[in-house]
Specification:
Strand 31 and strand 32 form a beta hairpin. The chain folds into six domains: 136 residues, Sandwich (Immunoglobulin-like), CATH 2.60.40.10; 142 residues, Jelly Rolls, CATH 2.60.120; 132 residues, Jelly Rolls; 271 residues, TIM Barrel (Alpha-Beta Barrel), CATH 3.20.20.80; 69 residues, Sandwich (Immunoglobulin-like); 109 residues, Immunoglobulins (Immunoglobulin-like, Sandwich). It is built from eight helices and 59 strands. The longest helix has 15 residues. It is mainly beta. The strands form 14 sheets. Strands 38-37-36-35-34-43-40-39 form an eight-stranded parallel β-sheet. A six-stranded antiparallel β-sheet has the order 13-2-14-20-17-18, with no helix packed on it. It is globular and about 90 Å long.
């Protein structure tokens, strides 16, 4: 596997040229057998099936068990064995019996394993047929795994955990109240690590259980909700699978470099080409790639197989499972630009001028870094040509830099060029000026050995400890939201265009900043933010070496943990550093055990050095949930505070030199349409509640908005997301935190933030004036959000009075409910500037379909998010409607799934029907590979069918 090379003028050669001549495979001279840089998408034509347990030899059943009850109660289980574990009374346990009998609780189980010297193998594994439903597995007191997710088989490789003498296997089992066998059969056996693929190359056998699938894919999202699965991950079962497909590489590619690139696999990927082990990648969020040049049958069909195990968790939210980002084959000549090897650094050197529709301009100097690799066993002389095209260039006019360089055999070098722009057009939130850098490697014989294009932007960013954030010299409050990466119906297997849809929905409520919580996102998110005007806090998943504590990893760091491998962090920096939307690097989130310690400061400083080698143009920060002003705070550039507005003033006084922002705040919970919380139904009032650590909107944003020295903040969250259901568990299967539900329909809280984040006069009033008949005559709290000076409410023609509106607050009236009309008006300086009304609807009369992303390409991936609304005869939304709606489709497209924003809905994600949730739901329509018109028709009993036509355009060629 190739690691990213660090820029700099140093040659990254480990051996002398004479030694390289022996170790580097001989490559043919540069030629024209193939054009430079061929990119082949491998997103289509995959097959998938659940993986079988690893084949074991020399097996033996572990059947002699004893057990005893645990008094843990509701406490979190320990990660080490208690000292008094062996005291008290132990009972014999027979495999397959139920010791809990449907009661909630913990119990200890213990068995003896044979002496290692008695076993004929070097690699051992335990296979569990199932444990109901969580099991912490210890061997000789060492925690090997924390298995969750229902009564499913799982495996625990023992590796170095077995001793030569006696071995004691201990389990701590938690039952959430489920009846049935507590533990199934447990088997110990030997295995060969690289042969556990069984038979992945057998593609043609129709009876082998494979089914076709499109990539990006999240197979977990297509599962059936299970109350005994892990609630934090959305109550959807996870299990390992195999993905397979074939591909061909022309015979003319022989002698070239062929890279197999994955944008992201969730998770624990093990890759085989033609049945041969190529490599593996544990992390679910970082891209990775392999050089498979020596594994390919050139001119023939090749089989690619990928084992994926999403039981390897990294977060405490829904992570999905599968090959959920793009896959490609890239064919390169021996002399080529490395992956992410072009980097444009801009330095604005002159005063900034306003140029109307062009945005701001200024003189600027570009420093262009190009990292080139020579895989030949002799030196290569070439011309490095870099061309810079302006944002609206259509004629190919460019500023060009060219220079001749020589690259030794086997070397990788970063070359530097400079280009001056006398009137550069700056990137900003409202003028998304993006330049194009085209780089060519021209061989000595004149042919182009490699060519690559990237977009970049020119802008200035500055953080001031007293005045906050500045973009191009102008003060900008960071009006941000945090977001995970799952979407309605498709989970994390997201097509690129849905990222653009998400950014557009957030901009629609006034947001200008996006925190990637808590991991790097797919590249389409950054591209959308670049083109639509959204600032980004790019976040690394974890600090340093994240794979700790056995096969299934750990989510957090702890004091003394070894560090040194920052590969995934550096990959994020290399991949993302050309995006102008990114204004800070966040290295981690809530590393509670080390964030306020000297050890944490040491580790953080090492990580900062790793980042600085690749990009020194952005400040470095993290999201801290305590420990300031110690630990990380002593070395980072910006202080990000999570959920502690009471710390803003003391931290500003204690750290007068340090800019401060709220890296995470809010976390209030609400649902559309709900008047009163109902735990049994898993629904939360639209009037907003909050948990002990969090704040309601006005208590979260008021302290930020009123303090100029707070650069801004990121609300948890912009969208609802699967998993982490709060304040309830089952039947909830996703969160209630979003300002928008998972379908992008706004909740009332969205309008609070829109009032806080925008200057155009606006007013909004809740609740929807469409309440049950039982509410007639009852006093209803009518709440108004606005950015106007005064607001006035008229209920059913009666003026309820005008009230002064304080910034970052709200006003309430008590109004006896009667069907009719609510009208709220906003005034500035006594003048009417905004109004909003809500009318009690009549009976449902129609279905309205609205495609929220009309520009679609026929790439087999893009999805039209079609909003569905139930209307009365006058076009008013029937907010109380919960009717079932089914969908049919014709033309070059398919129904990818449906959703409705109900956090307790158990309708499967991939079906062609839904049920309106307070008058709204969504159907997601996937394009085919043929351009044309897709017709989608909605049906509901008693209403006329409604059809929408969606036009798709031919898909463009893949970029390099």
């Amino acid at each position: 596997m190739h690691l990213p090379k660090l820029p700099g003028r140093l040659i990254t050669v480990a051996l002398l040229t004479a030694l390289l001549a022996v170790l580097v495979p001989a490559m043919p001279a540069l030629g024209r057998s193939l054009p430079p840089r061929q990119v082949q998408s491998l997103d289509g034509l995959w097959q998938i099936k659940p993986a079988a347990p690893t084949p074991l030899t020399h097996t033996m059943a572990i059947a002699d068990w004893q057990w005893k009850a645990s008094n843990l109660g509701t406490h979190e289980p320990p990660t080490t064995l208690p000292a008094n574990l062996n005291s008290g009374t132990w009972h014999h346990y027979t495999i397959g019996t139920d010791i809990f009998n449907g009661k909630v609780g913990y119990a200890w189980f213990q068995a003896k394993l044979p002496h290692r010297s008695a076993l004929i193998a070097s690699h051992f594994m335990l296979q569990f047929a199932g444990v109901r439903t969580r099991a912490l597995v210890f061997l000789n007191g060492k925690l090997l795994t924390d298995h969750r997710g229902g009564y499913l088989w799982f495996e625990v490789p023992l590796q170095n955990a077995m001793r030569q003498g006696a071995n004691t296997l201990t389990l701590l089992v938690h039952n959430p109240g489920q009846k049935g066998a507590t533990m199934g059969a447990v088997t110990l056996g030997a295995y060969t690590p690289q042969n556990f693929a069984a038979n992945p190359a057998c593609m043609t056998d129709a009876a082998n259980g494979f089914k076709p699938v499109l990539v990006p894919d999240d197979f977990v999202a297509q599962g059936k909700f299970d109350p005994h699965a892990n609630g934090s991950h959305g109550y959807l079962p996870v299990y390992p699978v195999w993905y397979r497909r074939t591909f061909t590489i022309p015979a003319t590619a022989r002698g070239h470099i062929v890279q197999l690139r994955f944008g992201g696999v969730m998770s624990g990927a093990v890759v085989y080409v033609n049945g041969k082990y190529v490599g593996e990648h544990a992390d679910g969020y970082a891209p990775f790639w392999f050089d498979i040049s020596g594994d390919i049958r050139y001119g023939h069909r090749n089989t690619l197989a990928v084992y994926v195990d999403p039981r390897i968790r990294e977060g405490w939210w829904y992570e999905g499972g599968g090959i959920y980002r793009h896959v490609s084959l890239v064919t390169l000549q021996a002399l080529h630009i490395t992956r992410w090897g072009t980097y444009a650094i801009s330095d604005v050197t002159g005063p900034i001028h306003q140029r109307g529709t062009m945005g701001d301009t200024a003189s600027a100097t570009l420093t262009l870094q190009t990292t080139v690799a020579n895989h030949l066993n002799h030196a290569q002389t070439f011309t490095l040509k870099s061309s810079v095209l302006s944002p609206d260039d259509t004629a190919g006019h460019a500023l060009t830099a060219a220079q001749t360089e020589t690259l030794p055999a086997g070397a990788t070098i970063t070359f530097v060029q400079h280009v001056a722009l006398p009137e550069a057009r700056l990137w900003s939130l409202h003028h998304c000026n993006l330049y194009t850098l085209k780089t060519q490697i021209i061989a000595a014989d004149g042919h182009v050995a490699d060519a690559k294009s990237v977009h970049f932007g020119i802008r200035t960013i500055r953080y001031d400890a007293d005045r906050g954030f500045f973009l191009n010299g102008k003060s900008v409050k960071l009006d941000g939201t945090c977001n995970h990466q799952d979407f309605p119906a498709v989970g994390v297997g997201t097509p690129d265009n849905l990222w653009w849809w998400r950014v557009a929905r957030l901009k629609g409520i006034g947001s200008n900043a996006y925190r990637c919580s808590h991991n790097p996102m797919g590249t389409a998110l950054y591209s959308a933010c670049d083109h639509l005007g959204m600032l980004v806090m790019d976040e690394n998943r974890a600090l340093g070496d994240v794979r700790l504590g056995g096969k299934y990893g750990r989510a957090k760091s702890y004091p003394g943990v070894p560090y040194g491998d920052f590969h995934n962090l550096q990959t994020m920096i290399l991949r993302d550093r050309n995006y102008p939307c990114i204004i800070m690097w966040s290295l981690c989130n809530e590393e509670i055990k080390i964030q306020g310690t000297p050890f944490g400061a040491k580790v953080f400083k090492q990580a900062m050095k790793a980042v600085r080698k690749l990009d020194s143009t952005r400040p470095i920060t993290c999201a801290m949930s305590g420990g300031y002003p110690h630990g990380f705070t002593t070395v980072e550039d910006l202080l990000g505070i999570n959920y502690a507005p009471q710390q803003y003033t003391p931290m500003h006084k204690a750290l007068p030199h340090m800019p401060i922002f709220s890296s995470e705040t809010g976390s209030s919970e609400s649902d559309r349409g709900i008047m009163q919380s109902n735990k049994a139904k898993g629904l939360v009032t639209q009037y907003t509640v909050h948990s002990g650590w969090s704040q309601v909107p006005w208590d979260a944003w008021g302290p930020i908005g009123r303090r100029p020295y707070i650069a801004g903040g990121f609300i948890w969250t912009g969208f609802d997301y699967r998993g982490e259901p709060t304040p309830y568990q089952w039947p909830d299967i996703n969160s209630h935190f979003g300002l928008l539900d998972i379908c992008g329909f706004p909740k009332p809280d969205a309008y609070y933030y829109k009032a806080a984040w925008t200057t155009k006069p606006m007013v909004y009033v809740q609740p929807q004036w469409d309440l049950p008949g039982t509410k007639i005559g009852s006093p209803i709290t009518v709440r108004c959000f606005s950015n106007c000076q005064e607001v006035e409410l008229i209920a059913n023609g009666k003026n309820m009075g005008r009230k002064t509106f304080k910034p970052f607050g709200y006003v309430d009236w008590k109004v006896p409910y009667q069907p009719g009309k609510l009208l709220v008006r906003g005034y500035n300086d006594g003048r009417l500037v905004a109004s909003y009304s809500d009318i009690t609807p009549g009976p449902a009369a129609a279905i309205k379909l609205t495609n929220q992303w009309p520009t679609l390409t026929a790439d087999g991936q893009s999805i039209a998010p079609v909003a569905v609304r139930i209307l009365d005869s006058k076009g008013n939304v029937v907010n109380h409607s919960m009717r079932k709606i089914t969908f049919s489709i014709s033309g070059p497209g398919t129904i990818a799934g449906t959703s409705n924003g109900n956090p307790a809905s158990h309708i499967a994600n991939d079906v062609s029907y839904s049920r309106a949730f307070f008058g709204r739901c969504m159907v997601l329509v996937r394009t085919g590979h043929q351009a044309g018109v897709i017709s989608v028709t909605a049906h509901s009993a008693g209403l006329p069918a409604t059809t929408i036509r969606i036009r798709t355009e031919p898909a463009p060629a893949m970029a390099n």
